[in-house]
């Protein structure tokens, strides 16, 4: 559920007064997952005020440019630079624990002047998918697991990232997977993170050390898909701020360091009957239901076309490499971390699928929306999965696109996903990602200078 379940506008107003808030950060998650918006004094913040920002704010590349020469983009986004109307979601309001003065932050939904949701806004895309489930009497349940790296501050982007120095005065040089002592190296930072999350009502769970040097992972308690996307959005912001306080960076790049594993956002997902609350993946006798198979079949069928959303940057595909703790396939298996879709060992009411393909760099709203969309299409079309995979799938052939251009082509060609996610969203999103790739291609990498400068 939301951070503050069933909060009304009046409840939000009272909360602001009770907490003596003097300033409010009005946030809109853009397509990259960056927090856009405005900062207002408390006296100026009301729902009736109808705060506005330009529609084009949701149509930027990660570098801040616009694909204005793309015909589909031009049809989707007004060339008059018109405004969107923002409306706060009262249930998302929470404190900004690192602020000096009493400050709140609240996530806003974006509307056109006619009162309809801006359909290419990330939150709107997720709402669209969730409505398809609700129309069938279903409620998706998700549980994200988010990996990230802590690094030394790096103010020169030409230099490689390095693991940070912990309280011992030394940086990690060896793999410390699941090491408690390695996590304790950064106790002051993680104490702040847990304190911040408690103040914000973010329901975080287990913290572990992952495989890479300075790589950590955090689990979220399972729940409502929109609320969990909000939590991940807030957590990314919170972690970056906490790391800066401790003179470190926290990064969700999919592959920030050469020679180290990439970072993922694994999403556990199941579907409940909205009336009974029962898991539709399980029959009355406790056995897997046909719908469980169909959901997996949908993930297998449509995930390759969804990769431009699940792996949204050129850097994302550096993670999708054989034998680097990331799947290169759409196989499924029981308690098998080498496949794209793992079935964890669980009780029959907790039967679920873990999508291990999604990168930590994915926009949480869009990543959750598109994996649910793939499963939804499997349920609707009653798609059958391949046989369960046994053994290591790292040696299996590639079933996922190996670069952003190929992924964008697959997304544009997949009409079924376009229908579920929204035509205008797909047009805007693919135009932005194509421009990002063009920008990347103008940059010459150190590898090219090292191996091609004098040898070709």
Structure description:
Pfam families: Gln-synt_C. Its cofactor is Mg(2+). This is Glutamine synthetase. Belongs to the glutamine synthetase family. This protein has 12 helices and 15 strands. The protein has about 450 residues and is an alpha+beta fold. The strands form 2 sheets. Strands 7, 8, 9, 10, 11, 12, 13, 14 and 15 form a 9-stranded mixed beta sheet that branches. A hairpin with a 5-residue loop joins strand 1 and strand 2 (about 35-40). The N and C termini lie far apart (about 60 Å).
**Approximate helicity band:** 25-40%
Uncertain segments: none
Number of helices: 12
Percentage of residues in DSSP E strands: 15-25%
Run of helices and strands: HEEEHEEEHEHHEEEHEEHEEEHHHHH
Query: How many distinct beta strands?
Result: 15
Mean pLDDT, rounded to whole units?
94
| C-alpha termini separation | 58 Å
Radius of gyration: 22 Å
Name the overall outline: globular
Major sheet: size, sense and barrel closure? 9 strands, mixed
Helical/strand content category: alpha+beta
């Amino acid at each position: 559920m939301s951070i503050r379940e069933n909060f009304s506008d009046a409840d939000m107003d009272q909360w602001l007064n009770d907490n003596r808030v003097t300033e409010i950060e009005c946030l809109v998650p853009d397509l990259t997952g960056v927090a856009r918006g405005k900062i207002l004094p408390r006296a100026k913040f009301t729902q009736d005020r109808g705060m506005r920002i330009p529609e084009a704010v949701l149509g930027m590349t990660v570098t801040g440019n616009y694909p204005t020469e793309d015909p589909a983009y031009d049809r989707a986004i007004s060339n008059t630079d018109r405004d969107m109307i923002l409306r706060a979601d009262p249930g998302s309001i929470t404190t900004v624990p690192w602020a000096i003065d009493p400050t709140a932050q609240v996530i806003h939904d974006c509307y056109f002047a006619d009162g309809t949701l801006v359909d290419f806004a990330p939150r709107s895309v997720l709402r669209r998918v969730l409505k398809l489930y609700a129309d069938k009497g279903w409620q998706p349940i998700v549980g994200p697991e988010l990996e990230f790296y802590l690094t030394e501050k790096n103010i020169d982007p030409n230099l490689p990232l390095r693991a940070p120095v912990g309280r011992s005065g030394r940086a990690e040089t060896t793999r410390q997977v699941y090491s408690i002592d390695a996590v304790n190296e950064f106790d002051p930072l993680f104490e702040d993170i847990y304190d911040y999350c408690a103040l914000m009502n973010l329901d975080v769970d287990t913290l572990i050390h992952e495989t890479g040097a300075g790589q950590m992972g955090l689990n979220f308690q399972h729940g409502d898909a929109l609320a969990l996307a909000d939590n991940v959005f807030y957590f990314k912001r919170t972690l970056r701020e906490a790391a800066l306080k401790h003179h470190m960076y926290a990064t969700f790049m999919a592959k920030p360091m050469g020679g180290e594993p990439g970072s993922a956002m694994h999403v556990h997902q199941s579907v409940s009957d909205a009336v009974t609350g029962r898991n539709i993946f399980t029959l009355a006798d406790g056995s897997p239901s046909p719908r469980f198979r169909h959901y997996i079949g949908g993930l297998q069928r449509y995930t390759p076309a969804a990769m431009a959303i699940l792996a949204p940057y050129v850097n994302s595909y550096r993670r999708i490499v054989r034998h680097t703790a990331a799947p290169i396939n759409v196989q499924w298996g029981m308690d098998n971390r080498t496949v794209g879709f793992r079935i964890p060992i669980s009780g029959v009411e907790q039967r679920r699928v873990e999508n291990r393909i999604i990168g930590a760099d994915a926009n949480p709203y869009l990543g959750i929306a598109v994996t649910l969309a793939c499963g939804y299409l499997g349920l609707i079309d009653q798609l059958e999965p391949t046989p369960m995979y046994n053994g290591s799938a790292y040696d299996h052939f590639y079933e996922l696109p190996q670069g952003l251009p190929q992924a964008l082509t697959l997304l544009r060609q997949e009409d079924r996903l376009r229908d579920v996610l929204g035509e205008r969203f797909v047009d805007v999103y693919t135009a932005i990602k194509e421009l990002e790739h063009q920008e990347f291609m103008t940059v010459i990498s150190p590898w090219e200078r090292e191996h091609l400068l004098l040898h070709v």
